[in-house]
Every structure is written in C-alpha cells, then in structure tokens.
Amino acid sequence: MYRALYLIGVGYLAICGVVVLRHRAITPIAAQSSKPFVVPVSPAVAWFQTIKPLCNAVEVTLAQRANPAPATLEGQGYSAACYALGGELDSARAVIDRLPVGDRYRAVGIVFAVAHPVADAGDNRSAGPIMELVVDYWPNHYMALYHAGMAEYALRQAKLARKNLTAFLSFYHENDGWTRSARETLARLGESQ
How far apart are the C-alpha atoms of 15 and 102, rounded to whole Å? Predict the structure, then answer.
C-alpha cells in the first residue's frame, strides 16, 4: 500500500520537474522575441500614409506637387487615389492614363481599395464619382458597380444607377444582402419612371 503511494508521489514529482525544466528552457526564447513586431510597408504605402491627410479638395494638388508619389505602379495607384479622394478626378485619370494599358486596372484597384471605406460609410457624393472612375477602367468590378449604382440612386441619377446596378447583377450571383439591395433599388427605379 505504502509502496503504491510512494510510486505515485515520485511520479508526480517527476512530472513537476519536467514542467519546471521546460518552462526554464522556453523562457529565454520568449525573452528574445519580446521586441515589438513591425510590419514592413512599401515606399508607396509609407508615402500614402504621410500624404493622406492632405488628400482633400484644398490641398491635394499642392501636396502632390511638393511630395510626389514613388514612380512605381503602386505609387501611381496611391497618387490617383489621393487625387480621387480630393475630388480631382481628372488628375486621377491622368495619373492612371500615363501607365501602360495592362497596368491601369491594378492602379485603379488601389483607388477602389482606398475609396471603398468612403462608399461603405455612405458618403455618396464622394464615393459615386470615384466608383465611376473605377468602373471606367475595370468595367466588371462588381463592387465598384454596386457602390456606383447605389450612390447614383441616392443622388437621383436614375439612368446611371440603373445601368450600374444591372451590370452588378450580371457579374455578381450570390444571393445575399448586396444582391437583394440592388434588386430592391432597381424595382424602386422601375416604379419611379
């Protein structure tokens, strides 16, 4: 009887010893990795993070003239996005048009990524024209079509809203809230003719 308890006690102490030794072996590794983790960003992203507060109607042109974007595809995409946020759509188009034809949709993808939160926030006056810019270069970008159509509906531009929402439904086939919203909006547009 005592022998069984003795063996259980020794086994318990052995397990505790292993746990303590493992903890001591892991601690120095954890101490080495206590430096903060920093996600590296590209020069274009760093440039955009710096200039974004100046991407407004008053400062966008002067800010970009004083601090031009990196001369990379990504840099030019962010430059176009900055102009678009500032309402300078002709300047945004000029930046995109200077790129090789095969790269334009990639630059406009950056414009979309930057403007998408504006559309999601419901700023239709700002988002609508930017989404139209995206659609001009990337005609089957279903989210840009949706946001352009909804913004144009809110701004009472029925013809453009109908065109973009119909195109959205031709590319997007999920049965979800976006599809339902587009169909409902098209139905309302049909009633308002």
Answer: 64
156 burial (CB, 10 Å; 0-12 / 13-18 / 19+) is exposed
Alpha helices per DSSP H over 33-141: 43-51, 60-66, 73-85, 89-97, 101-120, 124-137
pLDDT tens digits, 139-183? 999 999 999 999 999 999 999 999 999 999 999 999 999 999 999
Q: What does each C-alpha distance from 169 to 38, 98, 115, 136, 181 come to in angstroms?
A: 41, 32, 21, 17, 11
Widest CA span in the chain: 95
Q: What are phi and psi of 143, to 5 degrees?
A: -70, -35
- Domain ranges within the chain, ordered by starting residue: 1-37, 38-191
CATH topology of domain 38-191: 1.25.40
Whole-angstrom distance, CA of residue 114 vs CA of residue 119: 10
Whether the Cβ atoms of residue 67 and residue 50 lie closer than 8 Å to each other:
yes
Cα gap 57→59, rounded to integer Å = 6
Is the pLDDT assigned to residue 6 strictly greater than 90?
A: no
Kindly tell me if the per-residue pLDDT of 32 is higher than 60. no
Asked if residue 142 lies in contact with residue 172, where contact means CB atoms within 8 angstroms, the answer is yes
Find the Cα–Cα–Cα–Cα dihedral 43, 47, 48, 54, rounded to 10°: 180
Q: pLDDT tens across 108-137, in order?
A: 999 999 999 999 998 888 899 999 999 999
